[in-house]
């Protein structure tokens, strides 16, 4: 609301300035008119554009990237065959299982997009430079938590205070899972350990074959996502999620 009031005032200021500028040229020379065309009017337009950019209303590239992030997240709950995951990997059909499977697919999206940002090397040290990939990453995570918050509220008998606590706990687990999966990107043993911890809580009753299937799925899915050209990731990304039944 505050931003709208500021914009209204700015537009009123521009209309008033425009009225003054166009009311007086009749008595001015062509030389003066040319100066005005390239100075006051241009500056006023620039002021409005800068103002709207400041509040994020004209940064179309960022808006489109944000939409991309939300659409990417939606491809997970809409296209992933959760029932196959539950049945194939002997997981209970619960909200917790849904979140763990969703989390893994979200991480796969993040890996692909973070790879698009620049890593510069200075003094033999790698320095990560945040870019569009990092922005989309944040948008995907934002969409995830918006969806989680809505789903938690819909759970039967959900208490608001308990729901907030559960979301906080999930957030902490999510951050830990991202770190563990990242460490397993180039190490199958580390990845298997991360999967065992996240999917089966390090239970000794977990089936090693199920853990192996998930690791194979991750390797295969990362390979498929890497085939998507960088230019296609910004505006029209199409992610095809592989079936766990094929691993």
Tell me what you see in this structure.
By secondary structure, the chain is mainly alpha-helical. It is 69% helix and 4% strand. The protein has helices at 2-23, 30-37, 40-54, 60-79, 82-88, 95-114, 132-154, 160-183, 188-200, 208-226; strands spanning 118-122, 125-129. A two-stranded antiparallel ribbon has the order 1-2. Mean pLDDT is 77; it is low at 1-48.
Please summarize what this structure is.
The protein is mainly alpha-helical and 247 residues long. The chain has 10 helices and 2 strands.
Task: Give me some keywords for this one.
247 residues; mainly alpha; two-stranded antiparallel sheet; 10 helices; globular; disordered N terminus
Listing every helix as H and every strand as E from the N terminus to the C terminus, the arrangement reads: HHHHHHEEHHHH
- Low-confidence blocks of residues: 1-48
- Output the structural class: mainly alpha
Strand content bin: under 5%
Profile the largest sheet: 2 strands, antiparallel
From the structure provided, what is the oligomeric state, counting identical versus distinct chains?
A: single chain
**Total helix count?**
10
Radius of gyration: 26 Å
List the helices and strands and how they pair.
Blueprint lengths: L1 H22 L6 H8 L2 H15 L5 H20 L2 H7 L6 H20 L3 E5 L2 E5 L2 H23 L5 H24 L4 H13 L7 H19 L21
Antiparallel strand pairs: 1-2
Helix pairs in contact: 1-3, 4-6, 4-7, 6-7, 6-8, 6-10, 7-8, 8-9, 9-10
